[in-house]
């Protein structure tokens, strides 16, 4: 699997970015008692997902993350498939800020059926996000990002989450919609005539931009104490339109893209 190659970079990206990120939960219990300073949350994350966009094979990755929030404040809700974000405008119902994601690559040595197809390096996707709570239990979020590295296209993700807390348990569930421009779709789903000739199992294909997938994300979190919590989640994406029609997906992969994950969090007060 290609996880060893990208693990070091991802750990650095996630750890460094989340230093500025206030992780986001509106419905948490009383905050950790601390009169001044910060609440630090350390997380261990394990994720399982497709080896590359459109693949029916899975890759595993584990990485740490770290976040801070002011002492005396509660942790705001964040869905497990949100990008890493930092807010410039943050009130009770509306948030605007910057966001970033990491996208793994596609490599021949881990996927022998891809012989002849160009490899795709990992990419980072910085961008902006907008989040709105029309109701106390309902969150809408949109992210628009631009890729650097493996792809150079623009992508957008839209999501709606119903969030409910039952004692120590928090449940969230909602639909997802993803879009990508032609630069993005041709990187991951396109096949040039030269690649088709070298591979011999796929035909040339030049997709256009548009909706790439629809799906849903669900998560359950349990607060063992004010310090310890765990979150388990599942994601589902159904590739659609030109992404679903790609010969890479039809010959080697699947339109159905599942993901799973588990996060363990520990929070403590820190006063410099």
Extract low-pLDDT stretches: 1-31
Specify the oligomeric state.
single chain
Could you tell me the radius of gyration in angstroms?
19 Å
Helicity level: 10-25%
Tell me the span between the first and last alpha carbons. Answer: 42 Å
Describe this structure in words.
- The protein has one domain: Beta Barrel (Outer membrane phospholipase (ompla), Chain C).
- The chain has five helices and twelve strands.
- With 272 residues, it is of the alpha+beta class.
Quick summary of this structure?
The protein has 272 residues and is an alpha+beta fold.
Provide the fold topology.
Elements: H1 3-18, E1 38-50, E2 58-70, E3 84-90, E4 94-103, E5 123-135, E6 138-146, E7 148-149, E8 154-166, E9 169-180, H2 182-189, H3 193-199, E10 210-223, E11 228-239, H4 241-244, H5 247-252, E12 256-270
Antiparallel strand pairs: 1-2, 1-12, 3-4, 4-5, 5-6, 5-7, 6-8, 8-9, 9-10, 10-11, 11-12
Q: What are its keywords?
A:
single chain, 272 residues, alpha+beta, Outer membrane phospholipase (ompla), Chain C, disordered N terminus
